[in-house]
Design goal:
- The protein contains seven helices and no strands.
- It starts with 8 loop residues before the first helix and ends with a helix.
- The longest helix is centred in the N-terminal third of the chain and has 16 residues, at 24-39.
- The chain is 55% helix and 0% strand.
- It is mainly alpha-helical and 134 residues long.
């Protein structure tokens, strides 16, 4: 199955809605995927974020990563892939078209680009933005 975009707003909402934000890991997952959906950042850009970059606390803890796994170590790309698959699978059971799609973390960047086009952002601007990231 080819990789696919989550191109519909209800699909994105469904994935985010299935995340249990009452738990620390659910809060992390919601922040992680909301950030990925809304910023078009590459997964490694998100994983490289430090608490200082987010300006959540002052003074800033030296080099503390923003997204940690359940063992307290930095989340990896493989961890993001696992979490995304877990939440997409849960949302797929709600009658969305997600069950028919093979979603990958890069799909989130493509989805952001689609949403920008639909919002009327010039394609040349989107192309330049995507090409200059990283």
């Amino acid at each position: 199955m080819a990789r696919s975009n989550i191109s519909k707003s209800p699909e994105i909402k469904s994935v985010l809605a299935r995340i249990d934000r009452r738990t620390p890991s659910g809060q992390r997952d919601y922040a992680l995927f909301s950030l990925m959906f809304n910023t078009d950042a590459r997964v490694q850009e998100i994983l490289n974020l430090r608490i200082c970059d987010l300006r959540l606390v002052s003074p800033c803890p030296a080099e503390q990563r923003g997204f940690l796994n359940d063992r307290g170590t930095p989340l990896t790309r493989f961890g993001v892939r696992y979490l995304l698959r877990k939440h997409v699978d849960m949302a797929a059971g709600e009658g969305t078209t997600l069950a028919e799609k093979s979603i990958h973390h890069r799909s989130l960047r493509h989805t952001t680009a689609i949403h920008l086009v639909k919002a009327g952002v010039d394609i040349a601007t989107i192309s330049q933005w995507l090409a200059t990231r990283g």
